[in-house]
């Protein structure tokens, strides 16, 4: 499994040991307490206590698994900028969030659009989704859809 | 720690048990082989073998940890659409990928722009980054920057 | 009659002889089996068999004739980008496809527009079409119309 | 092989029999003189004479063959709007016309862009083409690329 | 009174003497038949006959007078690009043409907008016109208004 | 010859009789002093004096002739929005003003573009002008060209 | 308290002493008549008379106080370009002007949008304002929101 | 002199009496300590102490005077969106800030543009400024200029 480049955590909020633990877990969240302890120079119990604290105070959101979409048959990674009537923005954002193929829905500064990402088996599945799930929503003004050509960097933070 | 809604994996590529294992690990990648085995109705060794296969054939990219950015002092989540002279697109994409605050850099269909995401402690740090790292790159034509206002859904897939 | 430059067919799907036959027929679809046979070094029957296979498996869509529009009195070749309410996109695409002056209607990635091409005797006929057939359709938001100034290359593939 | 809907030829320039012959040949350009003669009610020689006239006066541009791109391994049909420095528009149009994967290059009213269509085996081949052939051309300002999602109508006229 | 630069009339449609007469009349439409005759080397009657022909065959549309707007108290020369629902384009164009302050209304290729020019005593009069005459029309989507800063050239042809 | 609708002159700057004279001359600038005198109820000398005053104080810019472009072989009436590097805006405006086919060149509020109108015999002449006169100018960034489809109103004021 | 750079007042409308008084008061509107008198070389009564005249003839609009927004807990300074249906432009402008967080609302040449500035404690307050006050207004088509990153100059004139 | 509507100060940072004092001074910054004291129910000395504190801790930036631009001969209030090469953004912002007619220069999220406001005696002065001060700056790509038509609300905060 690949090691990813690390995002630099600002120093002020967590101490150097926590930063070290975070780096280890972001590269391999199945690392055992014993292995982490050895690497950061603490006891096994000390590591476990720190991790529990970071879980309890909400710093750690989730231990998760990143999958290669192509390996499970997903060939189209698409971004949508969706122009909606402002009155319907919240409702449409919530409806789209319920679609299983949709992985993220954001509101940003700039024009009053929704920014959505979704995954599809192929162009046909995407076209069906657009026709049957997206275009039919009341309050949709227009949809700009773009397909991922190449990823240069891709860390799991948003 | 929060349980996230699941992305529906297409059926054709992985069997029902693999799908079950994936769902468990995406919700908690530190789940023990024993616990997974109990839940999916296989032996501990059987689970371990399946997971090793999924790692070896590249289906599993990484076990990782998702952190709440605000808890480590990151208050600005910004998206940049960067218009570059096409001749410099690849080189700029690679340079920006090396910046620690940058979490992703993509090329998509649509206009020949780079789509970048980055995290900052505050607006001031973002302004400094733009002034000292982004605007100085040769071949940058214009930069459109938008700040995240609200996340409606956010799964770790891209 | 003019010989056109050829589009390069990827090697993996058809063998070298089929590629040779395709090149000949794309330049002159009325070429006789005998003439093709001579050029590719097969028997007349062998050529006929290969062509029948390519027709039956759907590789060949149609033998057709390309006409010079100006010679039959068509002076305006126009492209339309039609912005429609997403709910009406499919219905409008199908209605416009029935218009005799319309030669193509596509849906593409990018903004949710229809891309249409049409031929007209002159600007007046185009204006009448826009006024009486296009602007009256329910769900049309706006129409961007551009007129062909010059063709640099033009092969029959879409 | 499929029969296509017909574009209506304006009456003033060609007589009814020529129109009939054109319709037949556009649906099947390999139709024999004998079959055409039977259908339009002329002698075989009369039909041949009319066709020769239409070839000689330039009305008929080419008898050709339309192929199903997917059957020969072409999965991406892409349109490019290419913004170029006006001084380089003609030169770039001519250079791009020489690329084998490019099927058409137009100049239109509206913004001073080139409109190009090309065919690719897959997204990767398209990305390589953009990186190695398109982005490197001197005078290219920006490139907007869109991928065909669905064809509603598609006659061979431009 | 000022002499204006001349637009070059294509040679094929009118002969050299007509062109000479047109040039004289465009610079001073009150020139007497006698003066024109002297200048072009024809008899007074010959000049009058030619001018009558050009009036009768519709070549001459009108002898008119160009006024300096500032001298009669008009300080704002404004252009409007008016985005309308396509169904209402014709009706709105006709309604706006009836407004006395409006001097021209055109439909052009490009986006389905109306292009309008109007003259106003000052910004206040323009604002009132926009508020009371333009914004209230059913079918108006948006209005882009631009004010003339400087004229580099200005001949009376459209 | 056609009578045109009149632009309403603001009352404050010219008296009712001057307004009447202006209306007559804008409809027919060859009207004799005698005919104008009869219509407005002044002596012939009084009318002549008023007209001379309006000429001398610069209110009247020119007596001119409006021609039907189609009658002298002009079939394309085109508007250009020309995006230039701001440093070259004035120089380019002056160069374009010298082209005989160009009838007007303006600078307006809104984006830093030149707005130009020109007349052409046909699309080919326009293409040649764009290629040889417009695109070659140093400092031109892009050119948006639109062709007149229909005039709803057209008075000679700018 | 900071001294600000001065805007240069055109000479024709106010004399040199009034200009001097204005400069002093714009830098410190609490300056006493005595101090102003000393600086401009007039009597205290003379200064008071001039100031009263400038108040009475409407030259002086208001003596006011500029506050540092961050010091009173305001961290987000946002500009909104609000696209409205033209029929509702005036009504929406008046409604938004009543919102306490809104500091300015303008109508300008260019597209028929409202330009609004507002202050917020943080992004959350801004999001609530957009959701509950802005998006719900009838006639709002879209909202483009931008956040101030850096002020280079900032005088109190609009 | 006019009383302006008040911006609501968030409660958390300043107490009710400070808020009252701020309201009074923003409506009339020449109010005497005695008058303020009477209105807020404190001693004259107590008011003076509070004001001094608010000056010293930087809450109060400046006591100033707002002038009616039209009364001193300023008739054009213009906003400029200036597109610059990102490398030159800071330098151009600083150069423009030194121009006396410029009242504000901002950098915002959204496209990498400078947002500038300036005041001019008339359109001619604005044109001269654009030609001689703005267009000549190295690194300027384009300039969009809009003129204020109507102010609905206008408080001195940015």
Automatic annotation (TrEMBL), chains A, B, C, D, E, F, G, H:
Coiled coil: none annotated. Residues 14-75 form the HTH asnC-type domain. InterPro entries: AsnC-type_HTH_dom, Dimeric_a/b-barrel, Tscrpt_reg_AsnC-like, Tscrpt_reg_AsnC/Lrp_C, Tscrpt_reg_HTH_AsnC-type_CS, WH-like_DNA-bd_sf, WH_DNA-bd_sf. PROSITE patterns: HTH_ASNC_1, HTH_ASNC_2. Transmembrane segments: none annotated. One of its GO terms (biological process) is response to amino acid. This is Lrp/AsnC family transcriptional regulator.
């Amino acid at each position: 499994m690949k090691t990813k480049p690390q995002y630099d955590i600002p120093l002020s909020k967590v101490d150097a040991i926590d930063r070290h633990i975070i780096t280890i877990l972001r590269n391999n969240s199945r690392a055992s307490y014993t292995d982490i302890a050895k690497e950061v120079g603490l006891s096994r119990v000390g590591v476990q206590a720190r991790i529990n604290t970071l879980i309890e105070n909400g710093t750690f959101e989730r231990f998760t698994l990143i999958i290669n979409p192509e390996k499970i048959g997903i060939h189209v990674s698409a971004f949508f900028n969706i122009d909606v009537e402002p009155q319907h923005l919240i409702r449409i954002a919530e409806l789209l969030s319920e679609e299983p193929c949709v992985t993220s829905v954001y509101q940003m500064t700039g024009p009053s659009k929704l920014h959505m990402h979704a995954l599809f088996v192929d162009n046909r599945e995407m076209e069906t989704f657009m026709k049957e799930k997206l275009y039919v929503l009341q309050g949709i003004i227009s949809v700009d859809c773009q397909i991922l050509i190449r990823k240069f960097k891709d860390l799991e933070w948003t």
